[in-house]
Amino acid sequence: MARTAVSGRLAWRVAYLAEIRQETATARTLVFDAPGWPGHLAGQHVDVRLTAADGYTAQRSYSLAAPSDGDRLELTIQRVPGGEVSEHLTGPYAVGDPVEIRGPIGGWFVWRPTDPAPVLLVAGGSGVVPLMAMIRARRAAGSRALFRLVYSARTPADLFYADELRKPYAGLDVTYVYTRELPDGAAGIPRRLSVATLNTASWPTDFGPTSFVCGPTAFVETVADALLALGHSPHSIRTERFGPSRD
Ligand SMILES: Cc1cc2nc3c(=O)[nH]c(=O)nc-3n(C[C@H](O)[C@H](O)[C@H](O)COP(=O)(O)OP(=O)(O)OC[C@H]3O[C@@H](n4cnc5c(N)ncnc54)[C@H](O)[C@@H]3O)c2cc1C
Known about the structure:
21% helix; alpha/beta; 6-stranded antiparallel β-sheet; Elongation Factor Tu (Ef-tu), domain 3; 5-stranded parallel β-sheet; binds flavin-adenine dinucleotide; 6 helices
């Protein structure tokens, strides 16, 4: 019985692109209709499989960008130059086109609306995607868990979900770190996320926070090390690595 449930959950299913929202010049949110979708938790991801006319297949993982909503799924894809799958999904892939999806996947890097603990979210680039699903899940559930998001991006133009994050929302604080270019008129210089910034933006350890860190591998490892150095316990830090750092 359990085995049937697991293999059923991880079976490939065909989803159809229903809507495209451009997030930045090189990233877009894809909204799919996935008939029979079993539902998911914020933080989980799916595998996406593309098949060429000659039968060649390519498969990559993408985080779910929004909480469960019937048969609707949202992914946000950053185009990686020369990338086999991301260039297709951010390029010729059009409304009505099919894709194969398998999931939901992941049981550790998840946030449940029943959890009252304060939450620190630390995003590097497209690593904001599963963290945004958590922010949206919190809002949809009316949770009062306190959230802080530290979002590192190259420039203001590279921010995903910029309008949504700009709107004030009770219990959510957002700190931006820009590594290449600051917003017009901002003081200071572009810099990488520092231990000092994390120290200011994170929760005191005696609040018992849970930290979710997501982004390029090197970013995630640096942030996780910094949180440990600031006294956060290893079991309170949950990480998701998207792949190589390109800087
Ligand atoms: C659990 C999980 C969740 C993910 N969620 C998302 C998501 O929500 N949105 C998203 O845009 N991506 C996400 N990714 C990354 C995604 O799976 C692919 O790695 C990415 O889209 C590149 O695939 P590609 O086929 O275009 O590039 P490839 O053809 O695989 O690679 C092309 C070149 O880019 C480099 N490269 C590969 N992956 C990355 C990367 N992630 N960053 C920088 N350079 C890379 C390769 O080393 C190679 O040089 C996630 C990865 C994981 C493991």
